[in-house]
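Protein modeling request. Please complete all fields; requests missing the sequence field cannot be processed.
Requester role: graduate student
Desired output: 3D structure, token encoding
Chains: 1
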Amino acid sequence: MIGDDTLPEGTRLGGGRYEIIHRLGRGGVATVYLARHTELSTRVALKILSEQRAQNLDAVMRFRNEVELAAGLPPHPCIVRPFEMGTFDELGGRPYMSMEYAPGPTLGDLVMAKPLDAAKACRLVMDVAEALSFLHSRGIIHRDVKPSNVIVTRDAGLQRAKLLDFGYAFDLARHATGPEDRLTQIDERPGTKHYMAPEQARGELPAPSFDVYALAISLYEVLVGNPPYHTHSPRDVVLRKVDPAKPSFSIRGKREDLPESLCALVDRGLEREPERRIASAAEFRDELRRVLAELDEGHVSVPSSAAAIGVEPGDSIHLATVPRPRSARRRASTLQWVGFGSAILMVVAIFVMLAARFVLRDSPPGATEESPSRQDAVMSEHSRGQPRKAEVAESADPAQAKDEPEPSEPAELEPIKVAEPAPSPIGPKAPRKKANPRPEPEPEPAPEPAETPQPLPCTEVRAQADDASRDRKWAEVVRLTKRRECWANDKQREALRVQALFRLERYGQCAAMKTSTDPGVQRTAKMCETRLAKEQDP
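Delivered output (538 residues):
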């Protein structure tokens, strides 16, 4: 029997039906692996209950609850689909669940590097709101909505957020009405305390308002970089939420570039009393769509006061400029590249014309003009020398692949100086003597634009590091980010590396990165320092 929670690559389970590729992540309840279903020749995410939790009846029942609830749902593009559940004899009968493999970081992983821009945050959280609206229409309350339970993947080339983890989900149709039995203390409420609704903390009957509040906290976090009151203990956060003498949390004043409509939406979702909160996940989704339309059109207004309304001890305030509307960026980008391309084509055309004239002057009778195929070759060589747009303006955040990068201003072109050949006399040429002709040098072919060399190894290093991060191959990320020289902006490399070290639980190396000048890297390093201290505490 295999007893280790970290299974090596190539391990066969389920009578050989599943083959382990590598570990994706590990939590307090289960470990998730990327595996290959040998019969279907497809990759799946394999969630296996931890050896310790497998001895706990409540944990096993919660695991089964997750599978049964999720398996009963029709497919939805914003929900990670489960496939099957069973037990592995090779692991002593431990329960497992296989589900759709959605490669990519969690929403929480993205926020570790830095808060998201308003438009991207709205798009991704809108997907989560869509998933919750779908669940609520079927009487299912998720009860554990948070950025770490949202995978950001790609679907038909576009970024999409997918909700996962139904371990705390509640089916209103299958449970008796009334407060939940046995869960009488605040510390025993199912869910994550920083994202828990006040009425959820009080032990009230599960309702869609639970998820609406958690969705608002999640949106707050992806915009600000951390949830409200994040420096306090989970218990203190809950007590703060349920205290009627305290104001509800607010995002106003935490980040200066957020439009008024978005601040109002977040604050409505954070209202302590459910009746004052946004009524449903569907309404939340529709409001996000309106905010996105404002952002895309550039018709946004920011709060007039810069006062930090509702700032709690330990909260951070992010200052930023109001971004230029996407449509304006797109028009500017197009004009820049059209102008750049036109200038290049003009230079090449002049170059080819002069070359043809030089060749025709000294060609023997009957020589033809340079063939179209040759001219095409020159154009092809020149086009290969042009930098690709993606190489000119690399995104500082690999997770923001959907957003169009702003190209840098193209350098002003230097005119190519070509020596003007001496004019030939007008009229027919005298025939040349064939006897002992004076050897004449071959006409020099027109110089061709130098071909851009193949991408340097560093280009591949950066691309592979981004791919490994999206696929959650953290050991590969650590290996690749050792090549410091491959990143012009070291903050990008540090963000990838500290995230990978944290996920691999290499807390010592992770904590050593607290000297970074990047606030996101510093936050993660401090988390590693805290966990390292707990591990070393006897």
